[in-house]
Each structure stands twice: as structure tokens, then as C-alpha cells.
Amino acid sequence: MTKLEELRRELAHLPPAHPERRTAVVPAMQALQAEYGHLDDAAVAEVADLTGLSTTEVEELATFYSLIYRRPPGRHVLQVCDSVCCGLRGADRLLATAEKTNGVPLGEVTPDGALSVLPSICLGLCDRAPAALLDGEALGPLDEAALAALLGRLRGGE
Ligand code: FES
Questions:
Q1: Would the CB of 138 count as within 6 Å of ligand 1?
Q2: Cβ atoms within 10 A of the Cβ of 143, count?
Q3: Is 133 helix (H, G, I), strand (E, B) or coil?
Q4: For residue 148, how far is its CA from the centre of ligand 1 (angstroms)?
Q5: pLDDT in tens, 3-62
Q6: Which fold has domain 76-155?
Q7: Distance (Å) from CA 137 to ligand 1 centroid
Q8: pLDDT tens readout for residues 96-113
Q9: Which residues of the chain are in CATH 1.10.10 domains?
């Protein structure tokens, strides 16, 4: 049983206005994203239906959380932390390097579909600042040269 099926089953037992429905919004977004790869408008509507929130509320939350993708991401997703610890240790230079190396703005997928680089709030890796997550795997501390090499590897055939 997938997480989504599990969640649907759990929520089916709750009355429509039960407060627990609303608290399931993040797990619901994660479960639908795991199923479909990103959260398109139909998935936003399904989250709204599951949780009792409006589609506008779900849309706002989906836009707020950097780990929820409203459009299909690249085959690899690199999240670069730009919160305080990483910011003090050069996160802005890493993000500029990523943009320059990939030739697309942050958040956009490279033309080959290989990669999305996303600025992110604290990843919980402050002791490794400046830090990043590549497809969920912790990286850091990173410098511009190591990042450029990594991006080259990711775009050059995985
Ligand atoms: S501030 Fe970057 S991982 Fe915490």
C-alpha cells in the first residue's frame, strides 16, 4: 500500500470538518508528490478534497514549502541552503555558481531535463555549512569549485 493509499484510508474515517484533516495537509502533499512526481492542479484539488482546505490554501502552502514541486523537477534535485549559517559561509556564491554553470535561473529545470537547483531554507545541516541536499543526500561543506564539478557530473550523463 502506498503512502497515499494509506493516507486516503486514514482520512476516510474522519468526519469532514475534523481538525485532523487540516493537519494532514503536508503529508498529503508529500504523498501525492511521491505518487505523481510533482503537485499539479489536479493534485492540489485532491489535497484540498482530502484535507477540507480550499484549493487556494493548499496552493499557498504548496508554494511556500520548497520541497513541494508545482512543476516537474529535473531528474536530479539539488537544494542549496540559503539560511543564516550557510548564508554566512557563502551560500549566495554557491547559488550564483549554480545559475551561471547551468545557464538557467534557480528553480528552473536545465534544458536537458537533468537538474533543478532550488534555494532552500535550513536543511538541518548547519554543521556542514554551506550545505545542500542532492536527491535527499546531504552534501557539505561545499565550495564553488566542488559545486561546479558536481553540476558538470550531473549534467554529463549522471
Ligand atoms: S542554515 Fe544551512 S543547513 Fe542550516
A1: no
A2: 15
A3: strand
A4: 20
A5: 888 888 888 888 777 788 888 999 999 999 989 999 999 999 999 999 989 999 999 999
A6: Glutaredoxin (3.40.30)
A7: 14
A8: 999 999 999 999 999 999
A9: 3-64
